[in-house]
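Researcher: Let's run the pair from yesterday's discussion. Sequence first, then tokens, for each.
Model: Starting with the first of the pair.
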Amino acid sequence: MPLPQSALAPDAVTSAPTLSYRRTVDRGDVHRWAVSEVFLTDYADLSADTYLAAAQLPPAHYYFGDHTGPAADGPDSMLLLECCRQFATCIAHRGLGVARDSAFHVTEWSLTLTGDTPLPPHDRPRELNIKAAVTRSQVRSGTVRAARYVLELSLDDAVLGRCDISARYSPAEEAEIVRRYHRRSAPPLSGSLPAVPPGTPVPPADVARRDPANVALADARHVAAGVSAVVAVPSGHRTHFDHPQDHYTAMILMEAARQAALLAAGTGVRITGYQSRFARFAELDAPVRVAAVRRTCDEVAVRFRQDGTVVSEIAVGVAEEL
């Protein structure tokens, strides 16, 4: 999806400041507790709807760098999604004035990778540049309640991919009332999840992982149409639950979709992108069931259900490695 013209205007390019990779941004601006989980290093606003960011991609990371197969040769798609999430979150707080204690709800999220960008050597951190064009989708009484972010990612001036995020923002008190109304109870926090999820975990090699702690699925089985499984994430996962959560986040569901797609298509494929829709929160206290079907040679359709209701649908783009 092309960026809106405002983000590509010549005057925006010529006035772009030089961004730094020397230190991270405030971890509170990207909703992280651990500095080691912050990848955004600088931020600048060019106008009311155009922003720039720098991010450092670490040469090694226990989760984002834990890959086998084609994914091990390039920037992890999950890491790129996380950098985009951090940038959009930073813009929401610094650029749009969204309060720090607001509830964030991602409604749509896509990533398209070019797949042909030459990459720097693995022995040093890669420096990612991100340009964002922002649309305030909903403003109520002067407060931004929803926004859309269209982001262009580049490494060494070569376009790496494009990301599109739509999100809603709710004041903390309002969000709590709505969650309690729909659940009829207060949602539990991630610390209440078992350290070892129930069920039979998927072997790490089957989802192109090395570390069993980074497996997000259990009880997988092949069915006539594809693959079925259950989301299973340990409560102590240092990235997924860097701080307490009251639901399975969009990032967790994206990773579960990636793994389900590899179960359906095989670990020899390269991930080319994601097209996601999040209809409701995936609660922590009921099983989230996953179904993955390879619809075409270049797409695996993944659907998440909880108590019989669809909570998310994610199309995972795949390409056969030659």
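Model: Moving on to the second of the pair.
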Amino acid sequence: MSTNTDRATRLLPENSVWIHGMKWWHIGFYTAIVVVVLVILNGEPNPATKTLTLSVLAVLAIAYPFLTRQRYLGTWRPVAYVVLLILVVGFLAFLPGSGAVLLFVAFPQIWMFSSTARSGLIGTAAICVAVAIGQLSRFSGATEDLVGIGLQAVLSFLASTMLGLWIYKIIDQSEDRAQLLADLDAARAELQLADQRQGAMAERERMSREIHDTLAQGFTSVVMLSEAALAQLRTAGPGNAAQQDLTTRLETINATARDNLQEARALIASTGPSQLQGGDLLGALERLAAAATQAGSDTSCALPERLPSLTSNQQIALLRSAQEGLTNIRKHADASRAYLTLDHTGTELHLRVSDDGVGFDPGLDTSGYGLQSISARLGEIGGALTIRSVVGTGTTLEMVVPVTGQIKPTPVDTREAEARVEAR
């Protein structure tokens, strides 16, 4: 990392390692001031010199908190303090034994309040020169004195520079690490937000499929049945068989509306399809075929006596796929017969919905929402959809779902069994 980096723009008071330790630098500074004051009070015999020195130290001590506050970093004030510090330490160097203590604090403060490494080097060189001049004024000018003062100035400059640049480098690395951590936290927050948005989109897609497969289909049946009932009502006379058939249709409308109301409540409560309450998939498929027959599509149902263990997602996918297939037959196939079959072979369940209707060309566009919904549902549980159709000879939708586990008896609801017997 370049040492010319502008530290004042990076070492913010909120996160800087250097700034966090500022209070200890304040304590060290005032401790050094007190020590120098005590040395002058006890060692300076001249009252005028003593008064002048204490006044200079008082100016430095008073100016310190007003020029070095955290919010002033990067402004002219820290620079003014460094200049004042160099002048005060240089002045104390003209007095015997009083400036050495303050010099230990002056060197790190120059680096602390310099915005760049270059300004730190200039400040260090200036204070070394000022101290050397003050020391020379107190000696006779002998060669050995000059060599000693020169070596002391050079060594002080080198030691302060090496220590300052080293600390400067450590602080820069700490700030880089803090910035990386901040970027990581920001990226983590963005990723979490993206995951939430993706989850919300997936949930909206799931809900759209649920609504399409339940409420939309149910209300479509209501519309079709009501239109048929209204048309029959206009042509039927009172007391004949047509009126009785009309009554049956209206009862079916009422039952369909009630079922869809129950579906809406189940979706709101997120309890899954109401037909599957109790886990009776076979019973739900039988009721689905019976409802399709009542809606005008004569549907036969061939189901096994038992099923292997199925997860809730598998049961929902099979039920909704069969429901969508029968709805497509009623809406598009113009069929006289429909067939719903389910069988278990090895590790797969095969659900087939077929009809003897008009059929279509599978090579054409079959990207309707209903078929997409079936494919998406099956894909979520590792299943697959196969479409076989020939124009004029009907259509077969075969849905294959992988399963594991042993076949176990399907739970039987006594009330549902009695209802089936009465219906037959």
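Researcher: Give me one sentence on the second I can quote.
Model: The CA atoms of residues 356 and 394 lie 4 Å apart.
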